[in-house]
Write a structure and sequence with these properties.
Blueprint: E1 4-6, E2 13-19, E3 22-26, E4 29-31, E5 41-43, H1 51-77, H2 79-82, H3 90-110, H4 115-120, H5 124-127, H6 142-152, H7 157-175
Parallel strand pairs: 4-5
Antiparallel strand pairs: 1-2, 2-3
InterPro entries: Harbinger_derived_prot
Pfam families: Plant_tran (PF04827)
Length: 180
């Protein structure tokens, strides 16, 4: 398993991994077409024509949808995840997410037989957003300004396309022979 460390300079997760014998040093997120072509986002291939491209799109979209569904469950259960988080410290956000995941797993395990009933008893007024919104800061903090500046350095679309192509080749080499 690759060792992951947080780079303060670049404000992105640094890790070392190889895809098709090519080294990469930034973690990436699975994204849909609305995201820019940055090396930290791996998007699906729009209108794939070849079989390898179709297989890559199928795997990327399937994994991304699984992640979105899991996050949707957490958002429905924990209000803190639905609130704006832009001004939070990244370490605090990581602790909050891990805590919510652990609490969710504990709840599911404890209430395995009554889980469906618990879900229908969920507070609908909170889910519909009808509760009184809480005010939040709108001023730009220096830490956030630095974050935006660092993120603007990560706009190398050629590295995004290389990673996407390498992942597509990797998936085809691993799963292509099992296609119908």
């Amino acid at each position: 398993m690759p060792r992951v460390r947080r780079s303060l300079r670049q404000h992105c997760w640094q890790t070392k991994f190889f895809v098709n014998q090519r080294p990469y040093n930034m973690a990436y997120y699975l994204a849909d077409g609305i995201y820019p072509s940055y090396p930290t986002f791996v998007k699906s291939i729009r209108l794939p024509q070849s079989e390898p491209d179709k297989l890559f799109a199928h795997h990327q979209e399937g994994c991304r949808k699984d992640i979105e569904r899991a996050f949707g469950v957490l958002q429905a259960r924990f209000k803190i995840i639905r609130e704006p988080a832009r001004m939070w410290d990244i370490n605090d956000l990581a602790i909050i997410m891990r805590s919510c995941i652990i609490l969710h797993n504990m709840t599911v395990e404890d209430e395995r037989d009554t889980y469906a009933q618990h879900w229908t008893d969920y507070d609908q007024s909170e889910a519909s957003g009808s509760s009184t919104p809480q005010p939040f800061l709108t001023e730009v903090l220096p830490a956030f300004e630095n974050h935006v500046r660092a993120r603007s350095e990560l706009r190398d679309s050629s590295e995004h396309h290389e990673l996407q192509a390498d992942l597509g080749k990797h998936i085809w080499a691993k799963f292509g022979m099992f296609r119908d």
